[in-house]
Specification:
Helix 3 packs across helix 4. The chain is mostly helical. The protein has five helices and no strands.
Length: about 160
């Protein structure tokens, strides 16, 4: 039987401050690199996919001018709207993956602050743990979503 008491607020604050001070450099660099990678990936996807067809059609139609609605409808064809949808989906997917890796790397850096891990080691730990964390996230989602239909909805009826 463990009779250990919870630490006081002051002890928790002091310990948190020490972890923050000892790993501030890693936390700052991880956040900065993650932001740069995320923005770069989104810009690359947008320019690579959307720029292929949408911008060329815009250039062709803008020379004639958008004097009537028909020209604008020619610009927004189902194929181009599909490309826009793909761009939005890929941007969302990449931003979720990159932000998850960065969050896991930050957690690793804070947890191992006494060992002073390198930024690369933190990113490797984030990348390695991405799949298990994603699987647990999906399981938690289904358990939460399932409880809605198994507990809340029958409770209302």
């Amino acid at each position: 039987m463990n009779n250990r008491q919870m630490p006081t607020f002051k002890e928790l604050f002091v310990e948190s401050w020490e972890v923050f001070k000892s790993s501030f450099g890693n936390l700052f660099v991880l956040s900065l690199v993650g932001s740069i990678i995320g923005i770069g990936a989104m810009v690359a996807i947008f320019l690579g996919v959307a720029g292929m067809g949408f911008m060329s059609a815009y250039k062709d139609l803008s020379s004639e001018g958008f004097s009537n609605v028909q020209n604008f409808q020619e610009l927004l064809t189902p194929e181009r709207l599909g490309v826009i949808g793909i761009v939005v989906f890929l941007t969302f997917l990449i931003s979720v993956v990159i932000s998850s890796i960065v969050k896991l790397a930050v957690i690793y850096a804070a947890g191992k602050s006494k060992d002073k891990p390198s930024v690369g080691e933190c990113f490797r730990a984030g990348f390695v743990n991405l799949v298990p964390v994603a699987v647990i996230g999906v399981v938690v989602f289904f358990l939460t979503f399932g409880s809605w239909f198994l507990l809340i909805v029958p409770g209302v009826f």
